[in-house]
Design a protein that fits this description.
Length: about 280
C-alpha cells in the first residue's frame, strides 16, 4: 500500500505535456529540388540558360575536351528522368565531351496528367478510379502531340543559341519516349539542322503511334543509329524487326541497329554503349 501511494504521488508530480497537432507541410515540387541538385553538384559554367516560350530553361553544358572539336551533341533524356540521372544520358554527356563534342543536356518536359480528359468511370464501377489509372491515359495522342510541340520549341531555342563552324556536326542522342518523339519530329521536318540521330530504347506509349514509329525510322534524313537493350520492354523489342524491314523498303541505307545485352546499368554496359556510338560517329 505505501508503494502504491508513493507511485501515485510520483505520477501526479510529473509535468503535463500537451500534444500539439502539427500543420501539414506540402512536399516540395520535383522541379524545384531537381534545380537545387543541379546548382549543388554542377559549377555555374556548366549551366546554360535559354528562353523557351518566354520562360527560362536550364540546360547542362560541357565543353569538348579533345585536341580537335568535332561538333555539338544534344542529349535528350527520357520522360521523367532528371538531368543528373545515372542512366546512359549522364554517361554520354562526359564521354562525348572527351571525344570532342560540346554536349548539351536538354531537360524533358513535365507531363501533366491532370490536363488529360479522364472519362467518368464512377457511373460504371460506382467507385472512384485509383490515382494510378491516370498514368494509363498518358497514351493519348493529344498528350504526345503536346509533348512533341514543347520538345520542338526547346530544341529550336537551343539550336538558335549555338555557334557552329561550317565543318562541325550537330548530333542528337535521345532516349526512350524522347527518342520516339524526336524520330517523328525529324521525319516530319527534314529541314531540322541535324547531321546524325542516335536513339536508345526508342518507343512511344501509344499503340498505333508506336507501330507507325517503325516506318518513321526509315523516313529520317540524317544517318540513324538505333540502339536497344535485350531487356527492354515489348514496346521496343517487338518493333525491332519491323524497323529493319521498313529501312530496307524505303532504301534507308544509313540506318544501323545495335543490341546491347543485359540491363542498361550493368557493369561495363555504359562502355559498350560508348563503343557503339563512337563507331557510328566515326563513319559520318
Amino acid at each position: 500500500m505505501p508503494y502504491l501511494i508513493s507511485f501515485m504521488l510520483f505520477v501526479l508530480c510529473l509535468p503535463t505535456f500537451s500534444i500539439a497537432t502539427s500543420e501539414h507541410v506540402m512536399p516540395v515540387e520535383q522541379q524545384i529540388w531537381l534545380e537545387q541538385d543541379i546548382k549543388h553538384y554542377l559549377d555555374e559554367s556548366e549551366i546554360v540558360s535559354i528562353t523557351v516560350n518566354e520562360k527560362p530553361l536550364s540546360v547542362i553544358f560541357q565543353t569538348y575536351m579533345n585536341a580537335e572539336k568535332k561538333g555539338i551533341a544534344v542529349i535528350l533524356p527520357d520522360v521523367g528522368h532528371p538531368l543528373l540521372s545515372t542512366n546512359g544520358s549522364q554517361f554520354l554527356r562526359q564521354a562525348l565531351s572527351d571525344d570532342g563534342y560540346d554536349t548539351y543536356v536538354l531537360p524533358s518536359t513535365k507531363i501533366l496528367y491532370e490536363s488529360l480528359e479522364i472519362p467518368d468511370l464512377t457511373a460504371q464501377q460506382e467507385q472512384k478510379p485509383s490515382p494510378f489509372a491516370q498514368a494509363v491515359f498518358f497514351q493519348s495522342e493529344s498528350m504526345l502531340n503536346e509533348y512533341k510541340n514543347e520538345l520542338a520549341a526547346r530544341f529550336q531555342a537551343l539550336t538558335q543559341e549555338l555557334m557552329m563552324m561550317p565543318d562541325e556536326q550537330l548530333i542528337v542522342v535521345a532516349l526512350g519516349t524522347s527518342a520516339g518523339i524526336m524520330t517523328e519530329l525529324i521525319s516530319e521536318q527534314p529541314s531540322l539542322p541535324v547531321d546524325a540521330l542516335i536513339t536508345i530504347s526508342a518507343h512511344l506509349p501509344h499503340p498505333k503511334r508506336n507501330k507507325d514509329l517503325a516506318a518513321s525510322f526509315s523516313l529520317v534524313s540524317p544517318p540513324l543509329l538505333d540502339i536497344f537493350y535485350s531487356t527492354d520492354g515489348p514496346a521496343v523489342t517487338q518493333s525491332i524487326k519491323n524497323r529493319m524491314r521498313w529501312a530496307k523498303r524505303n532504301n534507308k541505307y544509313d540506318y544501323r541497329q545495335r543490341e546491347l545485352f543485359g540491363q542498361s546499368h550493368e557493369l561495363r554496359q555504359h562502355q559498350r554503349l560508348r563503343k557503339e556510338v563512337n563507331g557510328f560517329l566515326s563513319h559520318l
